[in-house]
Amino acid sequence: MGSPSLSLNPLWLQFMGMTITGLAVFAGLARYIAFDWPDYTRCGQLLNRGSWLDAGMRNWQPNGCMLYNYKPAQAVACLDSKPVVFIGDSVTRTLFFHLAHLLDPSLPIAPANDGQKHSDHTMTAQNGSDVSFFWDPYLNSTHTLDIVRTARDDIHRPALLVLGSGLWYLRYANSSGGLPSWEANMERLLAEIVTSPVRPADQIVVLPVEQVAPSKLTQDRALSMQLSDIDAMNSDLMHRIHPPYSGLPFSSQPASPVSLPLVFNEMLVPSQTEDGLHFSGSVVKTQAIILLNLRCNNLMPKQFPLDKTCCNSYPWPSTIHLLILFVAFSWGPIFIFISRRAGPKQTSWYKEAQNPALVFSAGVALIFFADRSGLWLKEQKQFDPWTFAFLCLVALFVGLATIKRSDKDLGFLNREQTDEWKGWMQLAILIYHYLGASKISGIYNPIRVLVASYLFMTGYGHTTFYLRKADFGYFRVAQVMVRLNLLTLVLAYTMNTNYISYYFSPLVSMWYLIIYATMFIGYQFNDRTPFVLGKIFFSAIFVTWSMKEEWLLEMLFSILSRLFGINWSAREWNFRVTLDLWIVYTGMLAAIAVVKIRDYRLTEHPHWVITSKVSIALSALCILWFFAFELFQESKFTYNRWHPYISWIPVLAFVILRNASVILRSASSSAFAFIGRCSLETFI
After folding, report:
1. Rounded Cα distance, 267 and 278, in Å
2. Are 118 and 58 in contact (CB under 8 A)?
3. Catalytic one among 242, 278, 462, 643?
4. Which of 358, 382, 495, 579 could pair with 332 as two cysteines, CB 3.0-4.6 Å apart?
5. 244-280: per-residue pLDDT in tens?
6. Which residues are within 8 A (CB) of 200 and not within 5 positions of it... i.e. 6 or more apart?
């Protein structure tokens, strides 16, 4: 009697997925309760923790939240034409100019000349906000005290008051009184702010004393501006603004009305300064962006997209939204409960037939809590070529390691092959989006071809179906439309977003209806090739004309807005459609060609072998030409102008090369095919 053999449970993949998901949820909850709850808006992290994601010091990542780059029009809505006031030294002045430039790009980022450095400046942004800087490096002038003490109503009170001092006390210690004088002045100034019955500004910021770069300071500055003194001054500020007894230093609701962005010193890198004191524009601009995030994030409308996650509380769903969430989250468990009650008694707690409903509800719940709560930390995208290459190679390795071969020729563009095609394309698109590679033209351009490939398969697959089966019944249409739109519609309601923001599902739905209409008209004569080609030709002309005449789309979207309150962007939709305007028709023509080749048995023709070899050689040359062409384009915007006219070349070339032999047609990657079968959901 032999020993029993070990075998894996056929549901091991589902159990592994549930285990990993459960661990991720548990880890997120544990971290949130243990560490993040006191700072649930992540204001403290915005002001105290972060790191640069790039070597050029342009992409700053606060700890666990996303820094938002405000556009001038958005800053207008936030500041509400209220004044912004800066008081302090040259470091404060530099920050003043960069924030003013963010509000109005026509404003300068530095004084006109050196003679105006130690003077006051007032500029008016296009939104009407006055942005003022008052030169007072010691923060002890009568004017400064008047601003701090004077009570103003909500209309005239500054939206933002920024105070900066410290280095001049060190540089001119003999005349200023040095550290003791600075401590006494800051104590008096903070006491005036804290005890005032009315705040002098909506948002008050005291800048930390800047960490200088000693190696780049002049000799006189290096002798007087000691890092130990600067650390002591910042420690003193920290304890005065956030006394130990007032609560946690990183609390979302500090006892003091003053914010202290200690993170400004973490942002300073010696390579970004020439004199050791004043840092590069990219660093100071990011500091100004942090000030806008501090002031504005929680004031701006809390609607999709929720990309202002620092110093911002997530909106609580409305009653109707809560009802929708309850239905979406509980549908899976309720379905299982009802099926257990209605069906025969089950010996196992888990049944694979119940898997789709449970996975769907769990997936929607995870998507909601990932995007609309602090369960998991948020991070900005930053492209890294090494990470991009590594992830692509890992995906390629997994795909190659799971290749399986059938015993027979599965045919041209068979189901296993198209699933595989969708799978590896979807992995590439996911890596592309995860790393924010859209800024890299040499990567963006091939990814556009992958999207075109999806649309090509849409045209090819549906046209093949209607030519072979001629099933134009309602059930088929409903089946396809539900398959394409179920997740999108559920997400649109559960996430309280716009249906068209998940653009790919509406796009393929539109093209399916166009294909259906094209093939349905006169379907009795679809066996006549000239007639079908004529229908496709006139369909392409009509769709092209309707997209070129933008007023048609504008009128349609205007009607939707007036009658149903659906606010879609006609310009954005026109861009999405016209970018791949003819690739679907290429797929339809390819389907007709393949069907006719089979019907007429052209593969048995004596010239088929030489024709195939020539096609394969030309396809290889076309692939090489495409990569050479797209890499030499000036930008992705330049390439976009060419894309509608040339995308069919690499797509058809790949199809021919992938089906060049029986071995290639009979082999496919099971890992890629598995992902390809759910590629629509992962794309959304």
Report:
1. 13
2. no
3. 278
4. 358
5. 754 444 444 445 689 999 999 999 999 999 999 999 9
6. 147, 148, 149, 150, 151, 152, 157, 158, 161, 193
Adjacent-strand bridge partners of 87 = 134, 163
CA distance 276 to 270: 7
Encoding tokens for residue 578? 């016209």
Kindly report the pTM of this predicted structure: 0.87
Distance CA 604, CA 331 (A): 54
CB atoms within 10 A of CB 648: 20
275 is catalytic: yes
Per-residue pLDDT of 44-72, as tens digits, reads 999 999 999 998 899 999 999 999 999 99
Residue of 146, 231, 275, 307 marked active site: 275
Residue whose C-alpha is closest to residue 229's, from 180, 184, 264: 180
The DSSP letter of residue 273 is B
pLDDT of residue 252: 45
Q: Counting every residue, how long is the chain?
A: 684
Structure token digits, residue 162: 């920024």
**Residue 478 three-state SS:** helix
Task: Look up residue 264 and give its amino acid.
Answer: F
Higher pLDDT, 645 or 150: 645
The yes-or-no answer on residue 527 being catalytic is no
Residue 368 scores a pLDDT above 70 = yes
Angle at CA 480, nearest 5°, toward 474 and 484? 145
Q: Across all residues in the chain, what is the average pLDDT?
A: 90
- Of 90, 361, 647, 668, catalytic: 90
322 contact partners, CB below 8 Å, separation of at least 6: none
